[in-house]
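>> Question from a student workshop board

For tomorrow's exercise we were told to take the sequence and the ligand below, predict the bound structure, and bring the output to class. My setup keeps failing. Could a helper post the expected result so I can at least see what it should look like? The ligand is DLZ.
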Amino acid sequence: MIKGMTWIRPVEAPAALEALTSFFSALGFEPGKGWDEPESGGRGRPFLAPLGNVEFVTGKLPALGSHLLIEVTELDAVHQIAQRWLKDHGGSGSVGPIEETHWRSRIFTAEPVTGFPVAFWAWNDPLRGRPAALEGDLSAEGMGFAIVVARWNAVITERLLQGAMDALLRSGAKRGEIEIARVPGSWEIPAAARQLAQTGRFDAVIALGCLLRGETAHYEAIYNEVARGIGQSQQETGVPHSFGVLTCETLEQALDRAGLKGGNKGFEAAAAAIEMVSLSRKIAAGTRA
Ligand code: DLZ
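>> Workshop helper replied:
Here is what the output should look like for this input. Compare the format with yours to find the bug.
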């Protein structure tokens, strides 16, 4: 029943709103759906985090003068970004030193705008609270990708492509390291995917297409062959392939999954590809870090 939580922070001056928005963007926060109310001049700039909670505390407070605690994985990198932001933007802000906490972690407080302190912290043991497991990260830096996209139902597949590019570029992939191959329809995806994988130029292949049951003759036959072909190419080439081929009853359903209510499956397929490349590198290196 509970869906989410929003912690509202009233900001008086428009310049302070701009500065806070710039600071949170520089740190890589995902922006939420902002709003502007022309009559009142009101504006809202939400920022999202993968996890959140509200915590009621008695006794010793965990943070250095801030009620907003943001857990991160790379505290030193975040500290550097915050310091760089402060140097570039100056103003009344400040970034404190990193200190040890009383709960086996390190913390620092940044105040990009006076009156808006934010504490960033990280566990000393980065694997704390997680079962020991090999897991891929979502950083695409230094990775190369091939995207195979079907032209059939382009109104959907172009949106999937946009979602996939968004995920790759936001995760640190370089535009020059992404190659896009267009094929007539989903049927042709496996052959192109295999050939791209075999070049050895790519760390992963992302397959994007859209099959609509109502409008596709031999829907089952095409779908089975596409799924089998992509899976087989992945297994035989050893290059991760992610599956972003929508199989929907109607166009409306497909639109929902291409950027409307159901998210964007192209974005998800790209994220899965990044994760699998990272995991595969860790397996090869025999490391969890
Ligand atoms: C022929 C066909 C049909 C009927 N429907 C679709 C579809 O919904 N989605 C899709 O990606 N492709 C479709 N195609 C085209 C086939 O995938 C293939 O491109 C052609 O049969 C040519 O080989």
